[in-house]
Amino acid sequence: MTEAVIVAREEPVFYRRAAEMIAESAEAAIAARGKFTLALSGGSTPTKLFGLLASDPFRSRIAWDKTFVFWGDERCVSPDHKDSNYKSAYDALLSKVPLPEANIFRMKGESGSPVEAAAEYEARMRGVFGAGSFPKFDFMLQGMGDDGHTASLFPGSTGLGETQKWVVAHRVDKLKALRLTLTFPVINAARRVVFFVGGVSKAEVLSKVLSGLSVGYPVERVKPHGDLIWLLDAGAASKLGANIRQGATYL
Ligand code: 6PG
C-alpha cells in the first residue's frame, strides 16, 4: 500500500485533481485490462466532481463504453428520491455521458428487503468481477463523515466487522435508517482508494485519523492493498499535524 496526502488550496483544483485521477486510472485500467471499474461515493462532496467528469476534457477523455460504475453505498430509498446516491450521480453525470445502461450497477435501495438487495448486488458484482476472491475495483471514490464513517460503515454499525460478504444491509442508529454498503474487505481489495474529503467540519477527525493515533474511527480500517490517497480541500486539511503537512503534496 502506498499512501499519499494531497491538499488542494483552491476549490477548483480540489475537483479538477479528482477528475484527473479518475481519468488517469481509467486510461491505465483500460490499457491494462480492457475495462475500468469505478465505485462512487454518495453525499454532497462529489456532486461538483460528477459535473466536471460530465464536461470536457473529461467527458471525451474517459472511454465510458469500457467503464463500469458501482456504488460504495446507498440509502434505502427509491432511485428518484432526493437522498438517493444513484440519483445524485445520474443527474450530474450518468445522464450526460455515453455510459451504456448495462454498465451501471445501481444498488436497489427501494427494495422491501434490504438484506436481499445486498445479496442481489453482490451476485451482480460477482458477475463482473468473478466469483472468487474480493473484487479489485480500479478506483474507489470514498467520502468521510465528521464521525469518521465511510460508505455507510458508521461507528457502531454491524457491518464494520464483516469479513466475508461483499455487501451488507444494516441499520445506522444515528440516522435511524437502513443502509446498503460495500464492506471493508471489498474496499481494501481495490487497486486505488481515494478519500475525497472537503470542508472544515471534517478537519478534526481527519487530523486524528492521519496522525496514526488510532482512535477507532471506521475509516481507519481502510488499508487497501493498492494506493490510498487522501485528496483534501483546504478546510478539511486545516488541522493536519506538522508531520502530515510536511509529507503532504500541496496543489
Ligand atoms: C453517503 C456516503 C457517505 C459520504 C460521507 C460524506 O451515502 O452519505 O457515501 O459515506 O461520503 O457521509 O458526505 P458529504 O460529502 O455529504 O460530507
Strand content: 15-25%
CATH topology: Rossmann fold
Q: Helical stretch count?
A: 8
What value does the average pLDDT take?
Answer: 97
Give the assembly state of these chains.
single chain
Structural class: alpha/beta
Give, in spatial order, the strands making up the sheet with the most strands. Answer: 3-2-5-8-9-1-10
CATH class: Alpha Beta
Gross morphology is globular
Under the CATH scheme, the architecture is 3-Layer(aba) Sandwich
The span between the termini is 23 Å
Bound molecules: 6-phosphogluconic acid
Distinctive features:
8 helices; globular; 3-stranded antiparallel sheet; 251 residues; 7-stranded parallel sheet; alpha/beta
3D structure, described in words:
With 251 residues, this protein is an alpha/beta fold. It has a single domain (2-187, 197-223, 234-250), classed as Rossmann fold, CATH 3.40.50.1360. The chain has 8 helices and 10 strands. It has helices spanning 11-33, 47-53, 58-61, 85-92, 114-129, 184-188, 203-211, 242-247; strands at residues 2-8, 36-40, 67-71, 73-75, 139-142, 167-172, 177-182, 192-197, 227-233, 249-250. It has a 7-stranded parallel β-sheet. Strand 6 (167-172) and strand 7 (177-182) form a beta hairpin. The relative contact order is 0.19. Residues 41-45, 72-73, 85, 143-145, 149-152 line the site of 6-phosphogluconic acid. 6-phosphogluconic acid (6PG) is lined by residues 41-45, 72-73, 85, 143-145, 149-152.
